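Running co-folding for magnesium ion.
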Amino acid sequence: MKVTRCATAVVEANYDYTYVRIYADNGVYGTGECFFAAGLTAALREMFRLLIGRDPREVDRLARLLWRQGSGAGAVAGYLYNAVSGIEAALWDWLGKSTGLPVYQFLGGKVRDQVRVYADCHAGDNLESWGPMLLPRRPRWLAEALAHTAGDGDRYDPARYRRRAAQMVAAGFDALKFDIDSIVIPTGEELHRPLHRREMDRMVECVAAARQGAGDHVDLAVDCHWRFAPSEAIRIARALAPFHLIWLEDPCAPENWRDMSEIRQAGGCPILTGENLNRRHGFWDLITQRAVDLVAPDFQKCGGLLEGKRIGELAELQGIRVAPHNIASPLGTIASAHVCATLPNFVALEFHGSDVPFWNNLVRFPDGERPVIENGWIAMTGAPGLGCELDEDEARKYAKPGEGFFEE
Ligand code: MG
């Protein structure tokens, strides 16, 4: 069995949904999704040269070849892992379709039949789009959506948190996440100055409003996007303790696991981090030192679905739970769900596309039309591979200008 052709496509959504497709000489292809990065499709094209003529059944062998050839031995960071992760997922999809088995079977089999999803609610809405260097942009779909949205006040307004929480609970979700990192009193030095008392008060008001809107039986998490110093994060965790958060995410700069450990030991909220870490090695200190309560690998960048499974197993050894980061399209989200279905210590998978009007239309299922997420859950079927196909007619409508669409 041999890989005969590889191709990419990019959809310009809230982020660049970057797809990899791998074709083999049995007439079957597999599709995977990468976490976005600048220059990613050029990197993928370079990697494809290593795949042509290789046996696509040797998934781990190929992933390790790409890790080594693409990053240099010992490097466990860098966006080349985004590329490898998409390729690896495409190989699993191909193998599943070629053998008639769902991808979770290759990861040890599922331990649950449906995967719980939590809704990322940002700061009360999520209607935005970002280029690969996190510069804001306005594709046509966004301009149209914004034209239909009356300006309903500031982000970081408690009323907005309350409203959004109630909306998402009404949509069926029983776990939500809100951002609290950008509630700043503008000084022009937002990222570098100490936490202001007013800022702290506003955070507490916003989380209280979200709790009120969501109700007591909904799991609530907050994200700090690495914004605070450890001593500030400890104050925040203690101030938010009365709201019984399921986690406080990325409270401080990610480089030093000891900071996370200190915040965790101070109590107040369970601590989660890990969305930018790759391979088991990236998670090693956090997990072996019990520096966090939960880890959040992103399976579109951490090195692949199998490596995601291994990270989850490493965490399980230390009593640490897994709540994967996910900003992917439905295809990547479902790929992640295959890993989640196999992890006993899994909590919930992120959903970041609630304000992308066409999110749900980007995939088709072999058993007919249905929403990807129903009442906050993804059903794991026995369909081969990832169990879904990219809807190419729909995806092509939002294809990123200047990028190919699965062309030679
Ligand atoms: Mg986050």
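Result summary
The mean pLDDT is 94.
Residues 80-99 form the longest helix (20 residues).
Job closed.
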